[in-house]
Write a structure and sequence with these properties.
Elements: E1 4-8, H1 9-19, E2 24-31, E3 34-39, E4 67-69, E5 80-85, H2 87-101, H3 108-115, E6 117-122, E7 148-153, E8 156-161, H4 164-170, H5 181-201, H6 208-217, H7 220-226, H8 235-238, E9 246-251, E10 255-260, H9 281-299, H10 310-314, H11 321-336
Parallel strand pairs: 2-5, 5-6, 6-7
Antiparallel strand pairs: 1-8, 2-3, 4-10, 7-8, 9-10
Helix pairs in contact: 6-9, 6-11, 7-9
């Protein structure tokens, strides 16, 4: 493993303490059964939770806030360090970058936040029931967009350089050394175990391309069945790391607010005279999956679902998209027999 350093956990926490005046530092902290990012103070640093999947809040919120005045001047805020970015969220930056950084329509607000943020990815040392990143070709080990990859094993912190920004940050550390082969082997075994477990847990779940074909071949019944308990709250879309729909709201004083929106909200597609192509619940429900698995792959190079499972976990109606896709797969198999 090239560019890998080893440091004791207390020395790492001392290093973070030394950075807290120069950076806004965010990291996951577990409170009761909830894991989420927190803006750190010095007192918070010992409470950082490492290598657990995944913070409730998707990484996109740091670059696309729920509300933002895009009519204002770019801010001069301190740069940020975000610790604990899981692979599913880092892969989601593929499609966000395609949308918001592509010329000639580059979003300066998104661009500035991306440029001023150091992303410290962490691999997952455990699985959750609805995590299914490997089904869509993503291992739970950050391999893109992270500036550093961090793994904590007991009192040991292993840091792997992934970018020039990450290297520049680590150069300020004077107490690092090369990890032992024993420590690296232990980490490798743990990673392989987690990947194997994810494959085992979701053997029946179709991959991204197969899901795309299943949706295109589906009839109305399955969408009516699964949307029956949908309450149109929009939680699945707003918490998704790849969904980025928004409204632009003009306010007095030439304020233009970009506000997060969701295709599952009633009236999302309503136009003049009350016409609404997504007026029916089942149509609106299906539209989200068409967008993620059919339409976005036609327009972008990146996938639009990274298997984080947050949409399942946050659904008030207890709708499990994985169960939907497995049932759809079985149904279409039955048609061909």
């Amino acid at each position: 493993m090239n560019g890998v350093s080893h440091i004791k956990k207390q020395a790492w926490h001392d290093f973070l303490t030394s950075l807290i005046d120069a950076y806004q530092i965010y990291a996951p902290i577990q409170k009761f059964n909830t894991l989420d990012y927190q803006h750190l103070t010095v007192e918070d640093i010992p409470n950082i939770t490492y290598n657990l999947p995944k913070p409730i809040t998707p990484l996109k919120i740091f670059f696309l806030p729920v509300k933002e005045n895009v009519g204002a001047e770019l801010s001069n805020s301190k740069p940020s360090i975000i610790i604990g970015c899981p692979a599913c969220d880092l892969h989601a930056l593929d499609i966000l970058d395609e949308i918001y950084l592509k010329e000639p329509f580059t979003d300066p607000f998104y661009q500035q936040k991306r440029a001023q943020t150091i992303l410290i990815g962490t691999d997952c040392h455990a699985t959750q029931e609805h995590c299914h990143c490997t089904t869509y070709g993503i291992d739970p080990i950050p391999d893109k967009h992270a500036d550093l990859l961090l793994s904590v094993m007991e009192d040991n912190v292993i840091l792997e350089i992934k970018s020039q920004k990450g290297e520049a940050l680590i150069n300020n550390l004077s107490t690092t050394n090369a990890p032992s082969n024993k420590l690296i082997n232990k980490l490798t075994t743990l990673r392989e175990t987690v990947i194997h477990q994810l494959h085992e847990d979701h053997q029946q779940l179709p991959n991204y391309e197969k899901t795309r074909e299943l949706i295109k071949s589906s009839d109305d019944f399955i969408w009516e069945k699964y949307s029956n308990t949908c309450v149109s709250c929009g939680a699945c879309a707003t918490i998704c790391p790849t969904c980025t729909c928004f409204l632009l709201v003009d306010r007095p004083g030439f304020e233009k607010v970009r506000q997060i929106d969701a295709c599952q909200l009633p009236g999302f597609a309503r136009i003049a005279a009350g016409e609404d192509p997504l007026g029916s619940l089942s149509t609106r429900f299906k539209n989200r999956y068409l967008c993620k698995y059919v339409w976005k792959p036609e327009k972008f190079k990146s996938i639009a679902c990274t298997g984080c499972g947050r949409c399942i976990e946050t659904c008030i109606g207890n709708i499990n998209k994985n169960e939907l896709f497995m049932e759809l797969n079985d149904e279409i198999k039955g048609r061909t027999l």
